[in-house]
Amino acid sequence: MSAAKAITPPLVRVMQPQDHNAAIALLLDSEPWTRLGYHKADWDRYFSSAALQERESFVSEQDGRVTGIAVVRKKFLLGDYLELLGVAKDARRAGTGKALLAHVESLVFGRGKNLFACVSDFNESARAFYKQQGYREIGPIQDLLIQGSSEILVRKTAGPARPA
Questions:
Q1: Is pTM beyond 0.85 here?
Q2: Is-contact 70 58, C-beta < 8 A?
């Protein structure tokens, strides 16, 4: 009987400009962005935009390789908004998304009460992931990104913004 190799948990750190190409590569190979029609030029614009400088951006890294990305926009509906969460195909179901989300939540809930995200209605695995992490579906936003599909607004909360 051989011992199972221990899996090193991902390191979550602030994203650096040199991480952009690795992040773009994992997003180009991932749902929901392939189905939503995102291409390399779209991601190049996103990662080079001045607006990204106003957001908090993190990557997960394992064995020196970027395996996930999270981008947070501050000050959204009495909380913050998780604008982007992506995990490389070969890093899914290994705790990468959970580690990224836990890191983001520790920051967000240190300064506020709510974290919001959107998930595509057809992305059942992402919807299940958010539910497992304690997010509740608030409701659909129809035809937001593509015709015939909805983005589902989800929320995790530490309580009302104003105490009773």
A1: yes
A2: yes
